[in-house]
Amino acid sequence: MTVRLLATDLDGTLLNSERSVSARTAAAMAAARAAGIEVVWASARARHSIHELAQSCGFTGKAIGANGAVVLDLADGTPVISGTTSIDATAVARAMTRVRDVVPGVVFATVGATRFVAEHGYAALCVFADHHRHPHEMDVQATVLSAEPTVKIVARHPDLPSVELYRTVLAAEVDGVELTHSGAPYIEMSATGVSKASALARVCEELGIDRTDVAAVGDAFNDVPMLEWAGTALTTENAMPEIKVVADRILHSNDDDGVARYLEELTEDRTGHSTEGAPS
Questions:
Q1: pLDDT class of 280 with cuts at 50, 70, 90
Q2: Which end of the chain offers a freer environment for a tag, N or C, measured as fewer CB atoms within 10 Å?
Q3: What's the pTM value of the predicted model, to 2 decimals?
Q4: What number of other Cβ atoms are within 10 A of residue 164's Cβ?
C-alpha cells in the first residue's frame, strides 16, 4: 500500500515525554514532506499550543486541533484557521446541565477557535501542562465562553479520575455532543459527528488523497475514529491497550521516535535513500 499522507496525534505519539519534538522527528517530517509525503498533525490541543509546537520544529503543514473542530494551515508560519465546526449554543448548555446532573461537582471550561474560558473551579484544578496555559493567566469567569462560538467543552472533577468520568458520562449518552478522552485529566466534547476522522476526511478531500493512501497514528480514545478511518492504523508501544487492539501495526514508543522511524521507512520507500540515523 502506498502511503501519501501520515496523520499523527501529538501528545503521547509524535511528542516525547517532555512534550517536545525531537531533532530526529523534525528531520523525518521534513524529509518526508520533501519526498512528497504529506504530514498532518491531529491533536486535541488548541490553536495557540499547536502554533508554538510548529514554531519549535519548523513544521509548516496542516494541523487538526480541538479533536477535529478546528483545521489550521501553518504554511506561512502562522496558524491560519481554514475551518471550524462549533457546537450549537443550546447544545452546549444542555450538555453541561446533563453532565452536572450525572456527576455533581463537575467543573467546565469552553474552547473557541481562538479563546479559552474556564469556570473558577476548573481553573483551580489546573496546572500549566493541562492546557499549556498558566492557571493565573486563564480567562476565568463565572460563566463560560460567550465571546465566540464554542468548538470544544472540557470537564473535570476534583475527585473523580478522568477515565472514570469519561466512562460515566459515556454511559449517560449526552445528546448533541461527541464525547472523547485523550488521556488528559479531563474529558472533552465537540459537536456531534466531529472527530479527528471527520476533519482528516475533509483535509484529504481538499488534497485529493484517498483514505486508502492514508496512515494514521495515535495512542488514546480520541484517536480511534481516525485510526478506523485511515487505510493503515498505527499506534505506539506506549499506547493504551484498547488502542493497540485497533491498530494494524505497533510502532516504537514516543520516547523512541516511533513516528520518526516510520516516516523514515516511508521516505526510503519513496526515494530509495535511507534517512535513518538523522539527529535524535
A1: very low
A2: N
A3: 0.91
A4: 12
Q: Residue 53 to residues 19, 20, 235, 248: CA-CA distances in angstroms?
A: 9, 7, 21, 28
How many Å apart are CA 99 and CA 105, to the nearest integer? 10
Average pLDDT of span 124-147? 87
Q: CA Rg, the chain, in Å?
A: 18
Reply yes or no on whether the pLDDT at 145 is more than 80.
no
* 38: three-class secondary structure by DSSP: strand
Q: Please tell me the total number of residues recorded for the chain in this structure.
A: 280
Evaluate whether 189 touches 148 at the Cβ level (below 8 Å): no
pLDDT tens-digit readout, 208-220: 999 999 999 999 9
What is d(CA 141, CA 115) in angstroms, rounded to the nearest whole number?
13
Q: CB of 235 within 8 A of CB of 7? A: no
Q: Which three cell numbers stand for residue 227?
A: 485510526
Report DSSP letters for 100-142, one per residue.
Answer: HHHSTT-EEEEE-SS-EEE-HHHHHH--HHHHTS-GGGSEE-S
Burial label, 180 (beta-carbon count in 10 A; 0-12, 13-18, 19+):
buried
Q: How far is CA 21 from CA 51, 162, 190, 211, 224, in A?
A: 13, 26, 27, 26, 23
Under 8 Å between Cβ of 184 and 219: no
